[in-house]
Amino acid sequence: MENLLRPLIVVGGSVVLTLLIGWATDLLLRKADARHGETPLWGLLRRGRVPYQLVLCAALLRGSYDQARLLEEHRVGIGRTLTLVLIGSAAWLVIRIAAAVVESSYSRYARVHRDAARVRRVRTQVSLIMRVVAAVVGVVAVAAMLLTFPAMRAAGASLLASAGVLGIVAGVAAQSTLSNMFAGLQIAFGDMVRIGDTVVVDGEWGTVEEITLTFLTVRTWDERRITMPVSYFTSKPFENWSRGTPQMTGIVYWHVDHTAPVEAMREKLRDILRECPAWDGRACGLNVTDTTPNTMQVRALVTAKDADDIWTVRVTVRERMIRWLAQEHPYALPRVNTADAAPPPGRVPGPSPSPDGAARRVHEPPRTSR
């Protein structure tokens, strides 16, 4: 009976105690979250209840397993397994706690500061910091797991002795990866590009959706994702429309006939912008910027508070101006001239060429004979 009750009490007691402590801790976190609604920290810490309970259960079982006297012939293997579970769950819990603290600090910062560019910069830095923390904790946890094996502890001295050579080999082999990692840190703390920025890369317009230590993802206007190494943004030029102030100036072009009423188009542009909510009212203008033998180029200049609104203003102005010209001034639209060209001064257009292709002279003086 003792051989049956002892393992049942040890294992069952550890599981029951784990559930009770986990329930009590979760209850305290819920009460703290309800009492302190100004910070999401306590609610975010509840995400770590699963690794927290794993740590408790593994620690209790690891400390009391010898008293259970269960499967004593496999005592070493079971003890090492519990140690590995304890190390892994502890690393998982540390990452969850760090993520809760960092995310809570970012949320509080975002509520206090109204500058969208500064908030995006902090968000980018926080994301990369969390990735670095997770990577460091993961490496330390794996190293601790390996050191639980006697063979790995014996090989530690030789590994440290060859660390210099291995570092050189790894640096040469992973040169591009290391350069991307350093470029990711440079982007995060150099404020070159941030999550949420509007950028133009290789002719593609989009929004920065994700920044990691090695790559960056841009979401285009048509919902495509462009993934690029972060080293691209430190070695090649690109357009960042969100750098500085988000205000934008846009340009709309039309090709119209030379007889187009430019002054009336200016008045119509003002009317269109007054009815367009996306226009911020800072500036507008319309000028003739170029001419061709058949048309002239008219440029409208408009402004908006950000890249999304400038797109709305441009398409609205372009569409409504063309519609107005077609309805009120159809002669102003481009057309192909089919009329005869005006002759030079002092000359009268002659008859058409003869059927055999020989052109007749116009007002040709009589020939004199010798």
Q: Keywords, please?
A:
elongated; 370 residues; 8 strands; 15% strand
Characterise this structure:
This protein is α+β, with helices and mostly antiparallel strands and 370 residues long. Helix content is 56%, strand content 15%. Strand 7 and strand 8 form a beta hairpin. The longest helix is centred in the N-terminal third of the chain and has 38 residues, at 75-112.
Overall geometry: elongated
Across the major sheet, the strand order is: 4-3-2-1-5
Radius of gyration: 38 Å
Distance between the termini: 151 Å
Uncertain regions spanning at least 5 consecutive residues: 352-370
Count of individual helical segments: 12
Helix proportion range? 55-70%
Please state roughly what percent of the residues sit in beta strands, choosing from under 5%, 5-15%, 15-25%, 25-35%, 35-45% or over 45%: 15-25%
Q: Looking at the chains present, what oligomeric state does this protein adopt?
A: single chain
Class from helix and strand fractions:
alpha+beta
Could you give the count of β-strands?
A: 8
The helix-strand sequence is HHHHHHHHHEEEEHEEHEEH
Q: What is the arithmetic mean of pLDDT? A: 76
Q: Report the major sheet.
A: 5 strands, antiparallel
